[in-house]
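Handout, section 4.2: multi-component inputs.
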Amino acid sequence: MSMLDELLRAVLDLSEGKALELTKKLVESGEDPLKILDCVRAAADEIGKKFEKGEYFVADLVMAGEILKGISEIVTPKLREAGKKRKAVGKLLIGTVEGDIHDIGKNIVITMAEASGFEVVDLGVDVPPEKFVEAIKQHNPDIVGLSGLLTLAIDSMKKTVDAIKAAGLRDKVKIIIGGGRVDEYVKEYTGADAWASDAATGIRIMIKLMEEKRGG
Amino acid sequence: MTKEPIDLWIERHEKDPEAELKEKTERFLRAAQLKVPDRVPVAGVGGDFLCRYTGITWYDMSYNLEKIPGAVLKFVHDFPSDWSIIFAPMLLEGFVFALAFADYPDFSNTIRFLCGPVHDILKDKWSQWPGREIKEDMHPQFRGGEFMKPEEYGKFIEDPVEFIHDTILPRACPGLGEPGSSRWNAAWIRVGMTMQKIGAFQAQLFGELIKRGNAAFPITNAYTPADVIGDFLRYPTGAMLDMRRTPRDFKAACDALVEHILKVATAVPPAPPATFFFIPLHLNEMLPPKLYGEFYWPQLKKIIEVLVSKGYKGFVFFEGDHSPHVDTILELPKGWGIAWFERPRDFVAVWEKLKGHTTVMGGVPVSLIASGTPKQIDEYIKNLMVKIKPEGGFVLSPGVNELPADTPVANVRAYINAALKYGAY
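Output:
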């Protein structure tokens, strides 16, 4: 088994100490940082699949996210030194919608999205619709993620989608809503393109949206 | 206009509230005892929808005691239910305060929930309130935070109550100042005075609600040890990481909390016909079975078993999708209490597992009431009742009792109508 395979194994076993140690060894041995980040991406993908199969839970995503973040922190400076840049899969603009200050779900999505190769712009919590609109104009994202835990978030998500429509930006972005209380009904009601009640499903959908975009 | 079942029910409340109260109490108790009542009890709703419907803000609901009774009484009149959880004024998680005073049963349970006026005194960082940190029309929110470092578990385990009181409260509540200072003492005296005022207000409002035919049962409070750590000390993600990084400390901390949580819960003695202990679960669905089985369930099970053996009945809110852990509930004594499920991926499957052992509450997705049509709601509940009704021991309810502000009135009426139409045994 190559050291990169070992690293992938350690991440999937959620062995934090071992994964970080292997990363340091790989970096010291002169491994291409991009290859290590590819391994991170593969791990994120595999973790997502395990979550969807019910083998992993949120606590596992949180642990895996910490490990992947730790690996990136070791590798990114090396990448910069080498003058290399990782090509982003797509750009995600994300925030917890107006009236809701919860951020655990959003932060898990951010960690997993970054590990999967997305460039992420985080607008924080309690983000009013107009701030989303401004940020879309400024950052030109591929995907807009609306996060929310409370039932009131359903109304705020709808208002945000409406504001994006009113600003004439609806066709420029795909909108995904996420949180414990969203489902197909809420997707229809808010006018979003997709919904996910967990981060892993959300990432898979976003990757699919990007593939569709590239495909035409 | 033809009268719908809900209109006739409202009329019965107006004509003979005493008879309604009696019927509802019996209906709910029979369901809680796994027996077949005359009709499936239907649980009440509220939240942002209550504020919108009655024209008051969350600020009013939290601070303006004069405006609350009118709004609440109108709401429960127009949307009757068999049993409803009413936070008036609005309350948020505050079990940590009950723990800080766990050795004082005369008031530990009184400060189990946090209200806006007490937040103003303590200035706690766990919660945010309308007209204070957030806008007046925003729902009060529990945010939690990290107020303990992983290396402090040892001190916590030695004496959880003293550690919470002496170390956590000063960190999380700038309004208190240093323990023992005049500021500290003054703040607690003010909290006492405030709670006395709010207690009197609640007693009067609940008296009025009962007079109008609304059932109420005495309730005490307990908590899951791992949630105390996740909600108040280490933040949920911190708690999840600690289970893996410092498992021995985490487990010892959970074990150490059990007796103190029981002290708070038993501060309210059980009284016939039933005193319920309320436990809202938070980390449950986020944990894989291995972590759940080691750091969450053993302590929770112990707490439930002890309280049931002392004559209380359980009322546990299983947040999120509890499906992966449902089997463990069968380890509890039959008839231990009510399990309210927020959004199990297959509600009927959960019901099939637990029927005859546990009273099951829930079944209606909030999103369906918020964004479906009255016809969809009617059909959904009709189908659900066909699958569930024959057994007894079931309470119809949305996954949570809070509905969004824009929920159509017709949808909420459709929910209650369907319960009345299809719920009779």
